[in-house]
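Q: A reviewer asked whether we had any structural model of the full assembly, not just the individual parts. We don't, so I'm hoping you can provide one. Inputs are below.
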Amino acid sequence: MATVPKQIEIGSDYKEKYGFSVPEDYIFKAKRGLNPEIVKEISWMKKEPEWMLKMRLRSLEIFRKKPMPTWGADLSVIDFENIFYYLKASDKQSKTWEDLPPDIKKTYDRLGVPEAERKFLAGVSAQYESEVVYHSLHEELSKKGVIFTDTDSALRDHPELFKEYFGTIIPPADNKFAALNTAVWSGGSFIYVPKGVRVDIPLQAYFRINAENMGQFERTLIICDEGSFVHYIEGCTAPIYTTDSLHSAVVEIIVKKNARCRYTTIQNWSTNVYNLVTKRALAYADATMEWVDGNLGSQITMKYPSVYLMEPGAKGDVLSVAFAGKGQHQDAGGKMIHVAPNTTSTITSKSISKGGGRTSYRGHIKMYPDAKNSKSFVKCDALLLDDQSRSDTYPYNDVDAENVTLGHEATVSKVSDEQLFYLMSRGITRNEAETMIVNGFIEPFTKELPLEYAVELNRLIQLEMEGSVG
Amino acid sequence: MGFTEETLEKTGQGEPDWLRERRRTAFAAYERMPMPSRTDEEWRRTDVTGLDPAKFATLEHANGHKQETPKLPAGVIFEPLSLAAHKHRQLVEPLLFSALHANRDRFAALHAAFFTGGNFLYVPDGVVIEEPILRQHFSHEGGTTVLPHTVIVAGRNSRFYYLDEYIGEEEEAGYRSGSAEIFVGEGADVGYVSIQKWGRHAWHLADQRARLEKDSRLRLFNITLGGRFSKTRVEASLVGPGSSAELKGIYFASGEQFFDFHTLQDHQVGNTTSDLLFKGALQDTARAVYAGLIRIEKGAARSDAYQANRNLVLSEHARATSIPMLEIDNNDVRCTHGATVGPVDPMSMFYLQSRGIPATTAKRMIVQGFFGEVLERIPFEQARTLVETELEARLG
Amino acid sequence: MRVASVDEVPLESLRAVRVNETEICLAHAEDGNFYAINDVCTHENFLLSVGELFELQVECPQHGSRFNLKTGAVTGLPAVIPTKVYPVTVEGNDIYVEVPD
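A: Here is a predicted structure for the entire assembly that you could use as a starting point for your response.
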């Protein structure tokens, strides 16, 4: 007996699959709220150098001074004083899963992370609340000089490399949430890939929030030296609570001459998480930076990964997929800043709104006067699955350079009647046909994912299966 | 000195009390509101720090110019606004500044307080005027302010064409507007063309706004050529089902000209259509900013909206910004938009030159070709010819 | 052109001054020297003179871009375009900035 899909539903099994929580049994839990004492406490717990503490305190001041953004999603509902800014669940970082506290191990087992590591990853970082609790990297990669560690360890173990780049690409004053992150950051990944080294198997970081009203503020810094390659994947989930949590990350990336970096995100926070993230990469001569950004979860996401094309031949790509269901607002997009001649960029955005959800594409293409002979192309498509949902497109295009070509195209539509009619005329039910059309719509995204993730994503964007139909 | 109450009272002299009162309210708004700053989203790329309207507080009365007008059918009213305000209060009072609001910003308030010249056109139900109505507005000297205002009311099933031409040849700076409110009644069909050719040192800030009732049609063409600084908002509200707005723009900026366009396709009800295309060519160090929005309201099912901005960059130092935006609150719609910024296609240049056509001629032909698709849509010949002539003169 | 007196610009402070039409950020840096840099941030046109000094760099208050006071080079994003620097001379209590045409 065949089963037929009833309706398209992302995350219909979220509660069971990701939305669980385990008891809190923590080494350290800071008091609720944000103040200089909490910031000092975080820095003290981490035994940081003085310069970092100073930077944190100054960033807190900047955060206080900066107004909330007046554009994008409605953030007025966030109560910053109700958040826990630092939670430490384990007293040490483990090198084996067995070493982890039982509840944490159980969590990752249930999420399937150890299994994924065995099958197809070259390194794994698992962040639980504020700290990275598990870490691994294939030995051959460490022998080649690849550094893949948590950002706190990097500050201790690679202080010079760290200080050279930290906060130079996204300074605390860049925006309110970059300031917040710099004030209270904890965890995240630090990656250095030496000249000419290719990391052919992906590295993955897995971010997990467990506690209620948690704030997670990881900080990631990736340096791809000349001619190197790395593919970094991050995933994130959290339990479903009735009160809000906050995730505000900062990701800084440097891609040197001839290097290539691909950064894939599958953001699947529970729908009580505010996800406000700043991501920026610098691409030098003939380097390539690719952001593959999937936003499925969270209540509100505001995230616009950017690439600064700093030297001739640099290339930037953003491939963005957003899904907004009931109560969700995905405000996502990308930015391409062309600084040098002969640089190229593309942004492809696919968004789906359903059940009153709202997706907004927000993008910026800037061609500075030196960016002669550069090209940029942006394509945004939005699909509205019902009459309750909404879609916006806000593309900003500034061209100050000669002989450049810039194109932007967007369409907003419902599932087309012609396509539906065609499929249904071949004996396919309406719901199956809609599903096929949606899957086809996001295929440019799924085909860029490693196979295992594509399977996972198809499962996420699954259909709520109805019982058999006789 | 600046704009004073005395100037205001003088401007409104002889006008009915209700209108004078409106001018006073608008003037209060002007005095109250700050200049837009570069932190306001609409003005981020549009720098007015060098503009102090008070420096141009002498009003030029552009009322006097006699225009040849076709013989108009019975019932048609075509008069200076200040006169119409007296004679046809029941028509003018509810509509004047009902589509454009004085308190939108400081410049809109200035315009509403001090507008002079400009006309009121009322075409009754069922009346068709074949011959276009042409109107010229002049500025004669620098240092002055010229603020014409047009109100057009199209009765049910009426049909006609209208042209506003703004002309200035002075070499000094001045402050200029040239706004229009267009009310398109049920089933009416209106063609409206405006050609802005103020002097090359003028500050021009104007609003054109139309309201379309059931089954009506508007074809609005905005041609912008003059001014040192020109900012125009072109907006259409589709409030009746079956209405359709075609909004087209042509701009050619050279020297140090700066042009800004804000457009709005406001689909308030369903079964409405809008089609917008703004095409511009930029030469020397000219700069253009286009920002447009398609808004589809929740109930506006079966709407069809198109929006495109195309920029042809002819020189090394010209700059273009294009921000085409969509806000779609209904799924049963078809919305497409696009923006391009690019140079003259080298293949086309190569092709023309290989046929023995000199580079400058080839370039001119390409620019003419670029504007062609908008030119040929201009709904009446007089306007089309006028625009073609103006473009040719500027392309040299 | 004289833009300020030495007492008006204490050590490690910034001051907005003008030479004709040019807006200038005058800095009294920690090395004791005076520097003049174009006041308009090349990123989004905010004024540097209301920002902060970090050694020989000025930081834009709006988005945190940094510029080297001696060279005008960008030392921190999001700005990417260097800014102009102008020669400064101090004679007695008077500070002079020279803006070439």
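A: Points you may want to mention in the reply: Chain C touches chain A through 14 residues (CB under 8 Å). Chain C has one domain: 2-97.
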